[in-house]
Structures are given as structure tokens and as C-alpha cells.
Design goal:
Layout (H helix, E strand, L loop, with lengths): L1 H17 L3 H13 L1 H13 L16 H10 L11 E7 L6 E6 L2 H21 L13 H12 L16 H4 L2 H7 L4 H8 L3 E3 L2 E3 L14
Parallel strand pairs: 1-3
Antiparallel strand pairs: 1-2, 3-4
Keywords: Nucleotidyltransferase, RNA-directed DNA polymerase, Transferase
InterPro entries: DNA/RNA_pol_sf, GrpII_Intron_Splice-Mob/Def, RT_dom, RVT_N
Family: Belongs to the bacterial reverse transcriptase family.
Length: 218
């Protein structure tokens, strides 16, 4: 299946990381982002998730088999790829009068993000803190609770828990820091970060922050 083919390449990426062969990691990442299987799986992901009927600024959705097939072909044209601005929508925060912004990419930009995420995930999963549970595949709140139980149940466990929150974190994160530290095609990443946002029919530049709502961002 296409999922097994993508998984096989992802395992090769993880193995190359364990060997410290970063040149091979980058080669395999590039191979995956251009592969037919990777492109098919990316299109399937964005056409089967909950937001598949929510269009971006171009008003397009991929409801027909013909549209999905054209999309697979479009994902191979990465050299001249230019993401469109995000469509910003405001949704209320639960139990509060405040609203939080969501950035809705076009279907093509969502699929391109899903495609590059396939190449990025094995790197992140191989190098991230094993006790980190947020926004990671096959990890849940229940897993975090089990970890807390193991940490706090011994008699010698800490007696204090510090809960913190960084206000406006996603709205203010530095683009240059992301480009230096996220192990993926920097040119593509920079294009996403600088794509801009259309909010109430006005185009606004994005000089900092990463939008909430995209496949490759929380």
C-alpha cells in the first residue's frame, strides 16, 4: 500500500539518523517529498480529514477523484511552488469571551505541508524528548498522565508541580529561528512562513509567528 511504502522510507530516515548520516537523511527526505507514494498519501490525508470541505482563499476543495488525481500531479511541481495567503477565521475560546485565530491554507498548501511532514516526522520523533507528548503522532493525554503517575508516585517524588504558559507563543515565534532549527527544506518553510494572511479581506504580511490550524504547525 502507499502507506507502507511511505513508512518504509521513513524507517530508512530514522535509521540514517541513528547512524549520524545526515547527508543520507536529507537525500531520503527529498526522495520522499517527490515520490508518487508520498504525494498520494498527502492528498489522501487532506481529503479525508475533518477540514476537507473548508476551502482556503482560492475557494477550492478536492471532492472528485479527478481533482485528487490532478492534485497528486501538482505536488510534483515543487520548484515553482508559491503558497497562497492563509484565510484567517476567528473562533471563540472555550468558556471565554476571547477569540483565537485560525489560519486556513488552500488545499494545495495543506497537501504540500502534509507531504513535507512525512519527511519531517521521522527526524522529530528520533531526536525529540521522549517525555514530550504535545502535537506528536501516536501520543495522547493519557500517555502524559501515565508518565506523570510514574514520576509522582514514588515517595521520593517531587512535591511541587509548576504549570506554565507562554502568552502569544505561536503568534510571536521567530521565523529565522525556525528556519535554522527545523530539519526540512528551508526554502519551502520560509515560503509558508512569509505567505501572509487575509483577514477580513485585507492582506497582511507575516513577519513573525506560525499560524495555528495548518497541518505542519500546531
Amino acid at each position: 500500500t502507499i502507506q507502507q511504502a511511505v513508512r518504509k522510507t521513513q524507517l530508512k530516515i530514522a535509521q540514517a539518523i541513528q547512524e549520524g548520516n545526515w547527508r543520507r537523511v536529507k537525500r531520503l527526505q527529498r526522495m520522499l517529498t517527490y515520490s508518487f507514494y508520498g504525494r498520494c498519501l498527502a492528498v489522501r490525508r487532506v481529503t479525508e480529514n475533518r477540514g476537507r470541505k473548508t476551502p482556503g482563499v482560492d475557494g477550492e476543495t478536492w471532492g472528485s477523484p479527478q481533482a485528487k488525481l490532478r492534485a497528486v500531479g501538482s505536488l510534483s511541481k515543487q520548484r515553482g511552488y508559491r503558497p497562497k495567503p492563509l484565510r484567517r477565521v476567528w473562533i471563540p475560546k472555550p468558556g471565554k469571551l476571547e477569540e483565537r485565530p485560525l489560519g486556513i491554507p488552500t488545499m494545495l498548501d495543506r497537501a504540500m505541508q502534509a507531504l513535507h511532514l512525512q519527511a519531517l516526522e521521522p527526524v522529530i520523533e528520533s531526536t525529540s524528548d521522549p517525555k514530550s507528548y504535545g502535537f506528536r503522532p501516536d501520543r495522547s493525554t493519557a500517555d502524559a498522565m501515565v508518565e506523570l503517575f510514574h514520576l509522582l508516585s514514588p515517595q521520593t517524588a517531587p512535591v511541587w508541580i509548576l504549570e506554565g504558559d507562554i502568552k502569544g507563543f505561536f503568534d510571536n515565534i521567530n521565523h529565522e529561528w525556525l528556519c535554522r532549527n527545523v530539519p526540512m527544506d528551508t526554502k519551502v518553510l520560509r515560503k509558508w512562513l512569509k505567505a501572509g494572511v487575509i483577514d477580513r479581506r485585507q492582506l497582511m504580511a507575516t513577519e513573525a509567528g506560525t499560524p495555528q490550524g495548518g497541518i505542519i504547525s500546531p
